[in-house]
Amino acid sequence: MRWGLHIEQNVCSACASGKYKDSWGSQWCTGCPANTGVGGTGSTSVSACQCNQGFVGPNGGGCSACVPGTYKGSRGPSPCFTCDIATAAAVEAAISCVGSCPAGQLQSPMASNVARMCGSTQDQRCPTELSSTHGAGPAHHGNDGITNSDSNFVHANSEGSEWFRIDFQQPRQLDHIIFFNRACCAGRSHGAEIRVGMSLDPFLNTRCAFLNGYLGAQRHSCQLKGRYIFITHSGQWLNFNEFQAFSACTDCPPTTTALIGSAEPSDCQCLAGSYEATHVLNPAYAARRYSSDHGNVHHMSALDDLYAQMAWATQHNGFEEWMEIDAGSPKHVVGVITQGRGSSSPNQFVTRFRVEYRSGDSLASTTASVPGSFDTGRAKQEHLFALPIYARYMRFVVLAFNGHQSMRGALVVKSCVICHANAVSVQGSISPEACQCPAGGDAQGHGVDTHKDMALPRVYV
């Protein structure tokens, strides 16, 4: 009898997963050593038994638990990785670092769909791949934001072992996933598995959920960390509309840092050599979008804009039209500034609005609102919030107006300013006075003149 087979009812059958047989004959298959396993069937050597998740060592046995403060999220010869999240510190054989956010991020009450937060600007669809493609069902349909179209879907090319993958381009601490079945054939997804980890081999990553065949959207907890998330399936077509992966961990602003487990925006501190300052952020047209704009040309909405139509103006005076500003990255926003239309039509302006905000993609991410509403008019006016908020996208929603819905606007944000000349400061400084001359310097050209130089701060952008 061949290696990897045993006799069962007078028929040679492949050794089951977790077993092997390394010789000819009628012997039974042998179970893998403790804390090891085999993903497939028909294994012919003990070396096929690899250390399980949470254990490290050579193939074939002798696997020991990852020590506290480390984890291993996949079966195989990879080492245990050091956790950058505090909650795994007291656990042996950890398969993930679950709970708090890593250094440089903070826990946000608004989870964002990180499947659409890739690229250098963190606002693009993440790369996807499908093990095989059937007809008009390519991988990129799996996170294009279209959740309910029967002509826009992912479709693998067989009912065999197939997989779909999203590459977050960086390790992400996930919270939950949302999966959208096709209306025509929801049952096809029943039994599919969600796996998360650092391996390009889907079956070496940790499983967090099984999908069901229910129609519509289904949500599953997925408290795992990894660069890749997979859907694996066999015995049925891998076929669906959309796959979303949510994380509540949000990056601190550029040039700031935060400790492991940070949960408040104030935990993101300016680096040494800089200090926190408040300033006006008035982004270019490319960082702005609108519910509509009149004739597709009325979108000059920058504060004090005097170009062409001198404001954003809606196509029609519809209900709750909006203007949205992308701050470019999550920031501490302390307020907004509004302004009516310029001299071309001075009697067109918004009189009342509310502010909504979020950190991630508009197609799926959680949105919140600043409490209450704000009254405004034609003149430039600053509106400070009762409490600062932390967000990337700020939306001005029109509630009332004069003449026509028209507006110019900007954000009031906090960001880090570099100390001038040779001045230095400690991490977390919040005023220009924190920038001090080093030993051997003075404020007369060799250090920093807090009365002159500090009047022209250089703001990180």
CATH topology of the largest domain: Jelly Rolls
The CATH superfamily of the largest domain appears as: Galactose-binding domain-like
* Class inferred from helices and paired strands: mainly beta
Shape: flat
Helix content: under 10%
Number of helices: 0
Radius of gyration: 28 Å
CATH architecture of the largest domain: Sandwich
Please tell me the overall pLDDT. Answer: 86
Protein traits:
3 domains, ten-stranded antiparallel beta sheet, mainly beta, five-stranded antiparallel beta sheet, about 0% helix, flat, single chain, disordered C terminus, Jelly Rolls, 33 strands, about 450 residues
Concise structural overview:
The chain is an all-beta fold and 461 residues long. It contains no helices and 33 strands. It has strands at residues 5-8, 11-14, 19-20, 30-31, 36-37, 50-51, 55-56, 64-65, 70-71, 81-82, 105-113, 128-130, 154-155, 162-173, 176-180, 193-197, 206-210, 217-221, 225-233, 239-240, 242-251, 256-257, 269-270, 274-281, 288-290, 312-313, 322-339, 349-358, 368-369, 374-375, 381-402, 406-418, 458-459.
